[in-house]
Amino acid sequence: MTEERVLEPEEAAGEEQYEVTLRPRRLDEFIGQAPLKLNLELILGGARRRREALEHVLLCGPPGLGKTTLANILAGEMEADLRVTSGPAIEHQGALASILMNLEEGGILFIDEIHRLSRPVEESLYPAMEDFKFDWVAGKGAGAQSMRLSLPHFTVIGATTRQGMLSSPLRDRFGAVYRLEFYTPEEIRAIVLRSARILEIEIDGAGADLLAGRSRGTPRIANRLLRRARDWAQVKGAGRIDAAAVTATMDLLAVDASGLDELDRRILRTIVEKYGGGPVGVDTLAVSVSEERETLEDVFEPYLIQLGFLARTSRGRVATALAYTHLGLTPPAAWQREGGRADPDRRGIEPELFS
Ligand code: ADP
What we know:
There is one protein chain. This protein is of the alpha/beta class. 44% of the residues lie in helices and 14% in strands. It is built from 14 helices and 11 strands. The strands form 4 sheets. A 5-stranded parallel beta sheet has the order 2-3-6-1-7, covered by helices on one side. A two-stranded antiparallel sheet has the order 4-5. Strands 8-9 form a two-stranded parallel ribbon. Strand 4 (133-138) and strand 5 form a beta hairpin. The longest helix has 17 residues, at 34-50. Bound molecules: adenosine-5'-diphosphate. Residues 19, 22-24, 30-32, 63-69, 159, 191, 219-220, 223 line the site of adenosine-5'-diphosphate.
């Protein structure tokens, strides 16, 4: 993507300062994800009681839903030292060894995009996670010596947007695997109100409701849209975020009432106009809309599926009757049934089970 996309769920350049200010610090400040929070409270309580390092935790889900925030919260709640890295940043085994050797006893290593670890690094992580040992080969050739180094007891918190791309040996080494879900509009509304309080901007209920409906169930996007609405309110409005300020901001950004922008609509229109509504293979679709397949699968599709506009089937992607209606088009008569819900089955296509 060349230009900045306001609905991009990944962190944008220059956004870090806001993320840090707005990030909840404690579990009880973390809004939503109730079942996950209950589970985390339990493993935190157990580890504290036993005075042990927390077990390894894997957090899965689309970007912007709070994985990094939770890693920070877990470290805070355990009063543990936190080291943050990512799969592609650990370039070789030596780099991993140096990170692990420098961890404190009970320390937490957060590995973002853990599905992108290289194979050799991933394989040396197995004994480290399991036995707190690191197998190290010193020297090269005939004189090479293999050593087993002892590591402090530490915790890996892994984050991934693609659970399906994680090898099963790696997944099996996590004692706890959790999935973050999109937030409900009520939860996003609460997040927006909390952020507005921290940013000291006045917002009314109608403004918060409208923002919540367009944030794609994603806190990072909600916070970004809030900042854009704040700009509008301060520059063109009366200094407070109300329905008019949000509507004007969203019109400027071309974000529609379902929280879709031009790119989302282009994906749906492509399936409808070029491929007769689908099914179309994901690789073909990615080329048609000039996006990476990975971006399409991680960033665009989850929300379109959540809205019921898109279905992933074993034969490819399918636009639903709801998508036609959203684009102002009439779905082919044969697909229509009560409510116009997603209906890939009736077109002889098996919905695919995906994680
Ligand atoms: P991820 O690591 O999944 O991409 P982050 O943890 O970086 O997402 O979250 C993005 C931003 O969204 C954070 O800076 C934080 O301000 C906000 N956020 C995420 N989850 C919550 C939540 N449950 N409550 C309040 N704010 C949240």
